[in-house]
Amino acid sequence: MALASNNVENRVRLAGGRFYQNVRRLLKRCRHRQREEAVITPDDVVQFSSVLTLEAPEREVESLMPAQKEHEQYRMAVHHFGLLGTFGALPLSYTEWLIDRRYRYGDESAQAFIDIFTHRLLSLRFQAWQKYRLYVNAELQSYQALPAVIAAVAGQLTESKTQCIHPACVGLLATPIRTMVNLQHLLQREFNMPVSIHPFKGRWQYAEQAHCCCLGRSLLGDSPMLGHAYWDIQSGFHIQLGPFAAWQHAAFMPGNEKHRRLTQWVWQFAGPLLSFSLELLVQHSGQGNMLNGSRRLGWDGCLGDTGDSHIQRVYLAECASPYAV
């Protein structure tokens, strides 16, 4: 009866009799119990052994026995990939001899000695299988190498902590052609709020002295331009964030963390030659944004009523490119 109960328990613990998946699930469960950031290996959790049988098994794992004491390990009996048994690396004569020693003399010392090498062989085999399966590494290790690998392949690997790229956004930065729609998706994922972008935002640009016409020495149509300023609609665009709650908008004001991150993301995506303006749609409840002595005009207060929508529009100064004249 005791043997039957053990078999029932083993069937419950095993996952289809497959070696790699059973070891993977066992290590994952033990890592969650320990709650440590250290890398966990089969040597820390389970002890592998071969099965003395001359039959052709239908599954790779015969049984999985739990630890009887606190500091003991799980014990897994494996048919495949070992040294003994029908699928073992050693000749069948070794298995026959060990079976004879067990049932005739009750001697298991020789099998225990061979299982030392069996355990090492199976442990290295699982680690070699794990090495090239990144999803298993993510389950059993605290450090996830997959985001860095994806960023490196796309040419977007960076050491800056503020510019840690989400794996889902790497493809948007890897393409040579950067579109307005991709930038909108990137900012929406990064800041988790509605974003709309309006291209061709015009602004006045001042030309250098060498590009301006001088009376008596230049001809209209031959010289670069007449005057010292021109209206440019090609090098600027407008970003609209929100609507969002009133308590969030302070982080997007100039000098704060989210405003700095937004500027870095836009320059990394669009390049340093373009400039952009920013508009915040701040949603207030009722008259909560009226000037009452404790609010600042243009930051968290406004003149008059915002209407039924209770949305205050905050226009920030234009974020010029680092190479702007």
Structure commentary:
The chain is of the alpha/beta class. It folds into three domains: 2-140, no CATH class; 145-176, no CATH class; 178-315, no CATH class. The chain has ten helices and nine strands. β7, α10 and β8 form a beta-alpha-beta unit. The protein starts with a helix and ends in a 10-residue tail after the last strand.
Summarize it.
This protein has 10 helices and 9 strands. With 325 residues, it is of the alpha/beta class. The strands form 3 sheets. A 4-stranded mixed beta sheet has the order 4-7-8-9.
Chain-wise SSE layout:
Blueprint: H1 2-13, H2 19-34, H3 42-45, E1 46-50, E2 61-65, E3 74-78, H4 92-105, H5 109-131, H6 134-140, H7 146-153, H8 167-174, H9 180-191, E4 195-198, E5 203-206, E6 229-232, E7 236-245, H10 257-270, E8 275-283, E9 311-315
Parallel strand pairs: 1-3, 7-8
Antiparallel strand pairs: 2-3, 4-7, 5-6, 8-9
Beta-strand percentage range: 15-25%
Number of domains: 3
Roughly what is the average pLDDT, rounded to an integer?
77
Number of helices: 10
Give me some keywords for this one:
Type VI secretion protein, VC_A0111 family; about 35% helix; about 325 residues; alpha/beta; 4-stranded mixed β-sheet; single chain; T6SS_TssG-like
